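Lecture 7 notes: from sequence to structure.

We start with a single chain of 177 residues. Read the sequence below before looking at the structure.
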Amino acid sequence: MRHAKVLIENRKIYANELKECIEEYDKAPIETKIQNREELVALANSCNYIVSSGLPRSIESLALLGKKAHYIDELFAEVESPYMEQKIVKLSLFTWGFWFKIAWFLGYSNKSKSYKYSKEEAKEGAKLLIDFAKEHGSVLLVGHGLKNILIVKSLKKLGSKEEKKISSKNFGYGVYY
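Now the structure, written as tokens:
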């Protein structure tokens, strides 16, 4: 499951301001209104073990569902975004984020973990989730959009089947067994 929506202004910034905006995003509050709250609470209640990244938006999203994580690990944190230190054209925060993620997929990882490293991290996270599922029966991971997608790819490569395709929307989720 992806965390709740982060409340941050999509203002125009220079490329060299992205790092501090990412730090601001990591500390920003989340939206407390949940559209499909009953469905999400039922899903959380159906899981025997809960895993979360250590970022506040994941932990706070769990709290909105009335839950706490049994296991918290930075392994499940969002992939890092590269950035640059040059003050070039002003674009919206989300536009810069998009372009830097495209560059990241293509191999640019200035001041961040590489795509290759993040895939390895996701594989490690997927193995851990499988171990938790074997031990506890069912697991809920509250994490982050792109990292969740990488984890799902690893789960599938490790033999997991998809019951419900993951959604990268806020509070979107997938089901795998």
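The radius of gyration is 16 Å. Keep this in mind for problem set 3.
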